[in-house]
Amino acid sequence: MLAACAPRPAVKPQAPPAPAAATEPAPLYANYSLHPDYPAFRERMVKQGFDAAALDALFVAVKRDQRVLDAMGRPAEAKPWWQYRKIFVTQERIDIGVKFWNENAALVASAADAYGVDPEMVVAIIGVETKFGAIMGKFPVVSSLATLAFEWPSRATFFRNELEQFLIMCREMGYDPLTPVGSYAGAMGAGQFMPSSYRAYAKDGDADAKVDLWANWPDITSSVANYFKVHGWTRGALVAVPAVLREGQTEPVRASSLTKTTAGALRPAFEFTAGVADTSEALFVVLEQEDGSKVYWIGMNNFWVITRYNRSPLYAMAATELAREIVAARSAAATANTDVAPKE
């Protein structure tokens, strides 16, 4: 993929901007270098080759961001489906998605072909995550990760690992750790990669020896496609099919909303297309409607792969529907343009 040959993107994201000033709550610690868990983290990073004095100087500048803790307490995924869908599957996102795809058709096709992924999913994920690069977050990544690493006990281990990965990433890429901004949870760029995912799955799409997920669309599209490939996406395979709970049946008991079984194991409870082989891996999805009723879908392996991006069946369903709507709108627009009679 040659950057010079890539069409101009519909929305051009900017390089990692300087973080916006955070409002100052009454912190428990003046800065995170004073947190009682910081010395152990510093030792951990020193073992990774970091200088202790430089780490101290960095974490003196890193303070608690109450906005992060507040946002973690009200995730969109806690909403019922009918509210969640209104956030991501909108006419505006569909229209921008069609425009983005049309203006970047060669780039999207190249990434999809290189990694064996359906192109509409590459487009839809960028649409769900950042509205095609327009909303990449304004939280200083190091502050978000430190706040969660030191003050969100239920997931402290996860976020301390991500903080470690972020510092290593900055060292590898030559970033000042105080500069990159992202989501309240520390996700970065147009594809919203966490630091560990950035290091593991991000790809240099234009062979310029750098991987920039904020401003470089060949890198962004290649990285999203590679993420899907690594997690087992099958191009052209079903993502999800509608289902109906059979009369007299109740929803099967499962360990979690993402517990996989087989299509055959779900058939006694649900009626769905016979075109799905009984041996296919599958899970059932429950979508709550505004009137209190429920709609069911059977998610196939590709659906489960989407949940590797975000561990929520609502997220996977939103991405699936946005992809479907963008494909339909793009096809309708192309047909309408073909049907226009040429002027004499």
Protein model, in words:
The protein has 344 residues and is α+β, with helices and mostly antiparallel strands. It has helices spanning 38-46, 52-60, 66-72, 81-88, 91-103, 105-115, 119-130, 141-151, 156-173, 195-201, 217-230, 263-266, 301-306, 313-339; strands spanning 139-140, 181-182, 240-245, 261-262, 270-271, 281-288, 294-299. The chain has a five-stranded antiparallel beta sheet with strand order 4-6-7-3-5. The chain is globular, with a radius of gyration of 22 Å.
Strand order of the largest sheet: 4-6-7-3-5
Radius of gyration: 22 Å
**How many helices?**
14
Share of helical residues: 40-55%
* H and E order: HHHHHHHEHHEHHEEHEEEHH
**What's the overall average pLDDT, rounded?**
91
Q: Strand pairing plus helix content: what structural class?
A: alpha+beta
Uncertain spans, ≥5 residues at pLDDT below 50?
Answer: 1-26, 340-344
Q: Largest beta sheet, briefly? A: 5 strands, antiparallel
CA distance, first residue to last residue? 40 Å
